[in-house]
Write a structure and sequence with these properties.
single chain; about 425 residues; mainly alpha; Multidrug-efflux Transporter Regulator, Chain: A, Domain 2; Citrate Synthase, domain 1; 2 domains; three-stranded antiparallel sheet; 20 helices; globular
Length: about 425
């Protein structure tokens, strides 16, 4: 499916003024089409990439390759996600529309490329795949849901002797078990009973809500909110965590090891950890009436406000409004109102709209989940995407091994 971007992003991508962009269109170098809102134009990303590649070719291949690692040129082909105007797609299907089908059908679509007319038959494990008391003994008393996952993945791997060089069908079955168990493991800080309750839930969305301290799963809006958050988190192209998972998968490592790599990258404050920083901002504000003062004080000190702006979406992350709307429908207490007050303050100040991370915090607050739940939802959702990329990487049978360009690392002024 063709990918199109707005004028602002196209200009920044090429590093040219709007007038130059229009000139490229008039000379037939760049295709343009009406925007989905009827205002302005959108431009073909494929054409933009060709124009930029020709420009960079004058400098040789090395600068192009180097820029590819920093929001630059595409480095590999993937059939998993695309980003047309109006929202991103999984295997050509709108992610927002797919959320209405549920998280498990979305996993199957991502992993196999096939939609399902019926709810997929996922295995219901009897246990967590490792001894929970031993894992709990390694955790601090104030452990968050995602503190458990790296330990749990490693423990499950150690207990699974069949994980090495597993055939595709076996690893698909293993992936379904792992995701179910991840939902169960995240509840461990709340006790073993909460783990088993989440593990044995009929749907992963139900397990997430129950396991992370929520209630009201009989409410269709609650169930949809959880599914929506999981589905919109599932994949977003070659993010740092997804690329990490693919690199490890390219070595022939087992599914657990590849997922562990993704979890490690996700934990960073520039990736999944943004949601924790948004929660800290809500804590600092304390109540809706203080939101504006806290935001203004941070901006006055030159500090960034976490959860706003996205390099791929200069006009706003297209996933977030759906999350904010369902959170608004559910309603909640003062913390959720504080989330909305922060968003209003940033909008009134003319800053970029909120990102997915901010929307996940809003949904977690609306669902009444425990602290750290937003990044936990992100981790489980994105794990579905990691599995899809791991499968795709294995099918390519390529080792991901870029080369570094050697440069003189000696400090200036040292003898040569």
């Amino acid at each position: 499916m063709e990918d199109w971007v707005g004028a602002r992003e196209a200009s920044e991508f090429l590093g040219v003024k709007r007038e130059t962009l229009y000139a490229y269109v008039s000379r037939g170098k760049l295709r343009a089409a009406p925007g989905s809102d009827g205002r302005g134009k959108v431009y073909s990303r494929a054409d933009l990439e060709r124009v930029r590649e020709r420009s960079q070719a004058r400098s040789g291949h090395a600068p192009v390759a180097a820029s590819a690692l920093h929001w630059g040129e595409p480095v590999l082909d993937s059939q998993i996600s695309s980003f047309p105007p109006g929202g991103h797609h999984y295997r050509g299907v709108s992610a927002v529309e797919q959320a209405k089908e549920g998280f498990e059908p979305t996993c199957e679509l991502l992993w196999t490329g096939q939609g399902a007319d019926e709810w997929p038959d996922w295995p219901l494990p009897e246990d967590l795949g490792a001894e929970p008391r031993r894992v709990a003994g390694l955790l601090p008393k104030d452990a968050r849901p995602t503190d458990v996952l790296p330990l749990a993945i490693a423990a499950m791997a150690a207990a699974d002797p069949l994980r090495f060089a597993a055939p595709p069908a076996a690893d698909l079955h293993r992936a379904r078990l792992i995701l179910r168990r991840m939902v169960g493991w995240m509840a461990l800080p709340r006790g073993l009973a909460a783990c088993l309750d989440a593990l044995r839930a009929p749907r992963l969305a139900v397990g997430v809500v129950h396991g992370l301290g929520g209630a009201g799963i009989d409410d269709p809006t609650v169930l949809y909110a959880a599914d929506l958050a999981l589905v919109l988190s599932a994949d977003h192209g070659l993010t740092a965590s997804t690329f990490a998972a693919r690199v490890v998968a390219s070595t022939g490592a087992d599914l657990y090891s590849s997922l562990s790599a993704g979890l490690g990258a996700l934990s960073g404050p520039k990736h999944g950890g943004i949601s924790d920083r948004v929660e800290a901002l809500v804590d600092e504000a304390g109540k809706p009436a203080r939101a504006a003062a806290v935001v203004h004080d941070r901006l006055r000190r030159g500090e960034a406000i976490p959860g706003f702006g996205h390099r791929l979406y200069p006009d706003g992350d297209e996933r977030t409004p759906h999350l904010m709307e369902v959170a608004r429908q559910l309603g909640g207490g003062p913390r959720l109102e504080t989330v909305f007050a922060i968003a209003r303050t940033m909008e009134e100040a003319g800053h970029e709209p909120p990102s997915l991370d901010f929307g996940l915090v809003a949904v977690a607050e609306a669902l009444g989940l425990c602290r750290g739940a937003a990044v936990g939802i992100f981790a489980v959702g994105r794990a579905a995407g990691w599995v899809a990329h791991i499968i795709e990487q294995r099918e390519s049978n390529q080792l991901l091994r870029p080369r570094a360009r050697a440069v003189d690392g000696r400090a200036p002024g040292t003898s040569r």
